[in-house]
What does this fold into?
Amino acid sequence: MAKVLLSIPDKFLNQIDEIASNEQRTRSELIREALRSYMKRNMLFDTKKAASDAQVLDTLLD
It folds into this structure.
């Protein structure tokens, strides 16, 4: 399995870790599941919508 280096604001990472802990799974499992959901949802919409969603996500992560 490949590893990816990812920059995430501390506050957001703390939220991720809290959710992962509450769900008794690892941070990696939670992030993989979130990305799977994101990719599946975007396959159902057109590319303009996907680009818009990516911009919203980028804004939330800043």
